[in-house]
Predict the 3D structure of the following.
Amino acid sequence: MPVAPLLIGRKDTSTHVTTHVTYPPLPWGQTRLARMCSAVRPCSMLQRHKQAPPLSYDVIVVLGAAVWPGGRPSPALQRRVLHAVDLLQRGYAPHLLVTGGVGKHTPAEAEVMQRIAVAHGIPRTSIVLEDQATSTFESAWRCRDLLWQRGWSRVLLVTDGSHITRARLAFCSVGIRAMGSAAPGKPARRLWKRAYYYLREGLALAWYLGRAVPVALRRWRQALGYGTGASARR
């Protein structure tokens, strides 16, 4: 069967106009992988077009960060949830889904995020909790079920800028095509600390690619009817 050419968008930053470049057709497997990689570009429409009218999403998914002793939110956790609250109040989505289980300190990250969101005027009825996940990949799996149960398909992820690519890759691998919006924050002042963050995220991204790509390929095989039974679920 002939394969249609793959269109890859290219942003002209001087005019904010998106053009498309046509490339030769790729084999089926490479085409699938290329589409998956294009789904996790780290750019955020919200950050590039701050004056644009709100885009319509079903839900804003907020990924957790550390909780400090006494149930206090870490700066990263507070940044993320406050950014999500701001987006919701500006009309980007009607619901928040906060995800994160118990880490080094109680309570669960999702509970702390809910508490902050309610304190800033978000009704509890607009917040869905996922308080079991202990990693980004686990958050993607657990949030997928909650999203599908409610019929939510337009998803906006909120996390730190350095984390967006890995988060979107994790969600894409389980069947959730999500956009991303980075919580504003100042970079670490010390050079060694910034280098540590970049190195850690780079290694984590490579490890996630090793997990996410096989998961995505298994899903596609199942959708085409090639994988069934116990071997397809491993």
About this structure: The chain has two domains: 1-38, 42-188.
